[in-house]
Amino acid sequence: MSEIVLRDVSKIYDNGYHAIHNIDLEVKEGEFMVVVGPSGCGKSTLLRMVAGLETISDGEISIGGEVVNDLTPGERDLAMVFQNYALYPHMTVEKNIGYSLRLRKLPKEEIKRRVAEAAEILSLTEYLSQRPGRLSGGQRQRVAMGRAIVREPKAFLMDEPLSNLDAKLRVQMRSEILQIQRRVGVATLYVTHDQVEAMTMGDRVTVLRAGVLQQCDTAQALYDRPRNVFVASFVGSPSMNLLYAELGPDGTSLRVGSQNLEVPDTLFAQRPNLRAYLGRELVVGIRPEDLTMAGDGQTLVGRVGHIEALGSELIVHFGLDARNYVVEDKGGSAEEAEELLEETALTQHVRNVARVAPRSSVVTGDQVPFRVSMERAHFFDLASGNAIW
Amino acid sequence: MVTLTSPVPQRRRRKIWTESRVGLTMLIPGIVLIVVFMLIPFFYSVWLSLHVEIVGSNIPIRSVGLLFYRHLFTDPIFRGIFLKSLENNGIFALVVVPVQTGLAMFLAILVNRNGAFVKFCRTTFFLPVVFPMVLTSLIWKAILAPGPAGMLNAALRVVTFGHFTPQYWLGNVHLALPSIIVLSIWQGTGFQMVIFLAGLQGIPSSHYEAALIDGASRWHLFRDVTLPGLRNTTIFVVMVTTIFSLQVFDQVYLLTQGGPLNATSSVMYLAVSQAYVANNVGQGAAISVVLSFIILLLSLIQRQVLRERVD
Amino acid sequence: MSTVSLPASSSAPRRRRRRRRHVPWGVYALLAIFSVLFLFPIYYLVVGSFETPADTLNGLRAAAPSHLTFANYHSLSQQFFSSTITGSLQGFYTVSTLVSLIVVVGGMIVNSLAGYALARMKFRGRKTLLLLIIVLVIIPFQAIAVPLYYMLSGLRNTVVVQALPFIGSAFSVYLFYTFFLNLPPQLEEAARIDGAGPWRTFLQIILPNAKPAFASVAILSFIQIWSSYLWPLMMTSQPNVYPLSIAIGNLLKQQSTPNYGEMFAFGVLLVVPMAAFFLVFQRWFIRSVASLAVKG
Hints:
Chain A has helices spanning 43-51, 93-103, 108-121, 137-149, 167-184, 195-201, 219-224, 229-234, 266-270, 334-346, and strands spanning 4-12, 18-27, 32-36, 58-63, 66-67, 78-81, 155-159, 187-192, 204-209, 212-217, 241-247, 253-256, 259-262, 281-286, 291-292, 299-309, 314-319, 352-356, 367-372, 378-380.
């Protein structure tokens, strides 16, 4: 058992592409660390650098106190679970799980014992003599896990291991993976693009964007105090409403489009730096659940677009006359970003979302006042995107 | 947890150069063989085409520049043979490429279904592919034998109720090349058919279903689904067939020796017979080099043209 | 024209019923005609080899002989009685088999390794080498046969020289290269993390998953080498190192009044191993040729 430490790690490809920028990261012993970010943010590259499948351009990676920069993947004593499982098609489940042990020339009985034990944990015992081709997706996933745990490695690396499963199985496997990780108790680096997966699984979550570490903290902390507008919009589903706003010169009001919200004094007590923004434009972020239809207080009146009835709640899309702030590279490639922008232009009038109690009497086309809890609003600097506290 | 007995690694910076060294070790045997037995002979052939050497004599080898290349187009006697051979190759390719490609595609579509008889036919069409050209030549020499005893002559006589005059297929200036073309197609079609079959099976059935729902007729299915689906396959088949067509040698050498009156002489046959039979090595080499460049050029052009037309 | 299943639609039950009973007679008729055309030369070869010289070349009657005989086979074995003077049938077989074995087995080893290195290893000059391979694929063997003849004339009349130029093959390398390129790299990465080095990865992980590529290369190079004619023609002048193709070719070229029955018998002997091999491994043969199209 040991920890993974990244110190000032960078990756620059031969073609000059700068994939990873000076990342510092520590995965403690037994910790489940999730790295999350849009596709193309460099999270898989980071994982592969730890694994030894990519060279490290700069910085230092150590596992269990030993610098591993120059070690081959085999020498690093890690286990890795791949997105497509990478099971050896020509080997039985038993051989697949035991392959690394055979390479390490462990005694036959020892291999048999360990494989049997791993199979037991993963309820694969009856499939040991089958080839991976005949197994279901979930079973293959378990074999890949088995291959990892049988090693008793220093650390687990997982590269989107659940993205090939259907939604129901994915939820089930999340908890299975967590249970196994707790049981084995090794440092785990888990990469995903799915922020829900990240939030539900990680002891801590690292948000990565374009090779730059945005924030690394517990899921709750990321949600409650995102360090910048990117993390704010990336974490949480549906994502945070982001609007251009202007703080009044005297600090008593916030102008959002044509509407004014009263600003309580307590806000400045909580966020002393907000005083610097008096009379200036900034971005205000409001989580969908911080907009309610009942009770009284500050309200923003919006025109209701379509409504998603989820049973336990209603997701109400609505439009305001305020301008929405758009985080551009939430989804990887330039094309996707462009698409997103086009979509934005089309749906400008219903860009905002509120989560309200079920059976609320709200109808598409209505003008509805949404109550805003100002204490829970987030504020971001317009230029840097950093949160204002 | 058990710490496995991995040796304490020494400081070393070896991953990268180890990999490239292993890569080189893997490459070397194959690449050396290819370089020694393909690349060097090719350059040697270029060199030979620029020099004259009287085999078995003491006259020193001397450089003659582009003499042998000029010969191809200026030498009063040789020029005629060379251009005739080039023309024969051209005719051969112009007939074989479309006919064989079309026939192969047609047969592939016919056998792209289930059933014992269909399976039998598939085997039948492919079987000639495993026939060495020596054997193909032998069989067809018998089929094309002159006089009323020849199989083809006899068959045609029966079909025409005795009106057909027996022909000397391989000895007739007008019939020799077509005869060679027919037996080449017999031998080669199965090969292309199988490639098309694979191409057909690579077309997702949902494409056909979508077209059917849109009300497409069989002809539309063929034109709008099958043909576009076979695009890459067709490019490949046409390319391979063209290259094969330009390399025709065995059947010419075995059946007609280029005759009668050079009616079947191919460029490759001319090159080999110049070098090997006439002991005119430099001339043979020059022809080979010219042919290689023609083939290279054609494959480049063809690739480009086909790609553009379909896009 | 292809096997298209009509979407099940309840609104057109009549059409569906009709379709189920529909037998494509037209297709079968066409297939039958083409089968006869393709099969006839083969039938002629086999039947002719059992006919008397008078029957073999006797118009249409050759296709339906009055009686069959082993005389041609008998006469062949009489004719090729000594390995040194005339060559022996057994000797021709041995040479052809040995040459094929060297080319097929040797070729699979060296070309697969080279293809793998090109597809996976990083080294300088990789792209140049790949380009070279692609260009070399299209150079016809006949174009380099003469210089090769000079280079290897010291090895004339050996078995090895008949195989030597064909072991390393740009075409096979390219075939392997494209196959390995399409193999998911995660398999090798998993093996590396499990602690396997490049050689072990190749032998234990790649090889077992590349059977189709090996089968393709083996079969295609077997067809090519078993049929090769020009090269052994140039390199052999002694009957004891003749492969089958040369022996039969000599028969074909030397006889002014060809005895077709005898040559047909020889032809049958030449093609039977190949045809038997094909019929047994038909699926692999077809798959290997089909795999060529992938690179299109």
